Amino acid sequence: MIQNPFCIGWNKGWSFLFFLEGGIPKIEARGFGISRTSTLKNGESPEECADRLVFKEDRNRKIRYHSWSRSLK
To answer: Domain span at residue 62?
Structure first.
């Protein structure tokens, strides 16, 4: 397996893999039992794409948690 070419220090527990699929640059984020893949948008760096993926998953987890905690009341 290829080592990560970059590191996002603020978010431990995630690993990232940058790869080309059919000539299209993609990044895969893995962490906490979750795997998400996204294509890089025009003008976006791999670090920005990784940040976007992790932020989106963190937001989804918080929404699910708050929904679950409201159902307990």
So the answer is: 15-71
